[in-house]
Amino acid sequence: MTTNKFTLLCFLLACCCVSTLTGQGIVDGFFHPQGRLTLTGGATVGTFDDFYVGENLSERVPVHGKITQRIYNLYGKYGVTDNLNLIVNVPYIDTNGEGGPDPVNGALQQSGLQDVSVMAHYRPFSVSVAGGQLDGLASAGFSLPGNYEPNGILSIGSGATTAEVKLGGHYQLKSGFFATAIAGYSLRGKADDNLGISEDGSFDVPNAVTAMAKLGYAGGFFYVDGWVDYQSSSAGVDIMGPGFTGNFPETKVDYTRIGFTAFMPLNTTAGVSFGYGSVLSGRNIGTTSYLTGGLTVVFGQKK
User: Fold this and answer.
1) pLDDT digits over 4-25, tens only?
2) Which of 10, 97, 235, 301 is the most buried (most CB within 10 A)?
3) Cα–Cα–Cα angle for 212, 27, 254, rounded to 5 degrees
4) What kind and span of H or E run contains 5?
């Protein structure tokens, strides 16, 4: 096993999709060395037929019965320095319902470029602790929505511009076992009301506290982790509750998701990943289960 191949394996190269389906966010505890770029092309398929209306679980999605989402994304990570990485994620989402048209916007299907995200990921310190390495994590970035309709059951996003900050830590033993924990705050702007539901032509999308934790192993031949992802909105309305008038971007979306990711290198410059995730509990969200896979290519190997 070469050093380059081992280094390749020490990345978290899950198919990171910033969407209503996937968890984890787009940052992890691993860093690329200066000059290294990885590109991951990923595909995710998720379905749900149960839906949390407020905090009450409904056995069928209103109107549609069952919803299927397909996500195709390109995820890039570049080492500006050994301790500063730049991350970009570009997702395209296709959503279909099995029943009648969306009662809010009349759509039977929605697809388009979702929220393009850019994040700067920094390691402020790295120290040896109890036979392992402890790294500090600090990230800041933003996401810009694509030209999609944000209001409706089949909408592919909230339609808001978002700024986000995250802090956390990553501890890894020499054996390859590791633990990562990251928490942050997502500050969300307004979404355009193209349907004339609101008084001022826009929706206030709730801000949210986010958190993620992982336990895993990054070794010479494979990578695997188990993760939990959490979001709690700071405000908002419940679907079918007080203040709800079809204004879906203003709903309070909470969730706890769990899943796993596996990655295996094919050689020193490419590898494949596979993952599974599911919504364990939530509020105003579907009980989505999804499968994801991806192909990663590495450029700029460090000598």
Assistant:
1) 333 444 443 333 333 333 556 7
2) 97
3) 40
4) helix 3-9
Chain segment 36-76, per-residue pLDDT in tens: 999 999 999 999 888 899 999 987 777 777 889 999 999 99
60: containing domain = 3-299
Hey, which residues does 79 pair with through a beta bridge?
Answer: 85
In the predicted model, what is the mean pLDDT of the chain?
Answer: 87
The pair of three-digit structure tokens given for residue 103, joined into one six-digit string: 């009662």
pTM exceeds 0.90: no
Q: How many domains does the chain have?
A: 1
Nearest to 197 by CA among 237, 165, 232: 237
Rounded Cα distance between 69 and 95, Å, is: 4
Which one-letter amino acid corresponds to residue 98? E
Q: Report the alpha-carbon distance of residue 29 to residue 13 in Å, rounded.
A: 11
Q: What is the CATH number of the domain that holds 173?
A: 2.40.160.40
Task: State how far the Cα of 35 lies from the Cα of 24, in Å rounded to an integer.
Answer: 25
Radius of gyration of the chain from its Cα atoms, rounded to whole angstroms = 20
Residue 258 tokens, joined: 């769990």
